[in-house]
Task: structure prediction
Amino acid sequence: MKILISGFEPFGGDAVNPTGELMEALAQEVVEGAESKTVLLPVHFDECADLLIAEMEAYGPDVVIACGLAKGRTAVTPERIAVNVKDIPTGSYADNQGQRPVDEPITEGSPDGLFSTLPIRAMVNNMTAAGIPAAVSNTAGTYICNNTMYRVLDYIRLQQLPIRAGFVHFPASTEMSLLQPSVPSLPKSAMLDALRVMIRTVVAEA
Result:
C-alpha cells in the first residue's frame, strides 16, 4: 500500500509547525505493510492543494493523509468533512502570501461538502487505546487545511480514483508551548506515535 502524507510549513507568526517536523521524522521510517512518501506544503491558498495533487499524480498513492496544525486543540483530530469555502474571519491571520479570501468558493460548481474517506473512527479508537488523546472533528475550518482537504477529495471525485483520503489536525507541540504556556500541547513523540497508529489503521482496514 502506498501512502502519501503531507504537512505544512510554519504560519501565523510561529517559528515551527509540528506537522512539518513530523514529515521529516516519518521520512526516515518504514511502517509494516506500507510504503510512504512525505511532502511539505506551503501555507498558500490553492498552491497547497496544487502541489499535493501534483504529488498524487506522480506517486500514485492508495491513501492520502494530509496533516495540519490546529493550535488550541487538545487532541489529534481526524476531520470528518471539508466544506467548499475559503474564508478568513476578521482578526485572523492571512496565509503566508498575505491572501485574505472572504466567503469565496474553493471550486465553483462542486459540492458544498465532501466527507473524508479515511477510517476516522477506527483511527480515533486505536489512538485512544494507545493512550493518545484523539477525537473525530466535525469542522476543518475555512483556512488552508480545509482548502487542501476539499481540493484533494474533489480531485479524487472528479477523476473517479480509488484513493482514500482525508485530513488530520494536530495540537501545538510542547516546543511551541514553551513560548505560549497557555496553549494546549502534545510532545512531538506522541504526535509521531499517533501518525504511526493512523497508518497502521489504514493498512489494517484495507
In short: The longest strand covers residues 2-8. The chain has a mean pLDDT of 94.
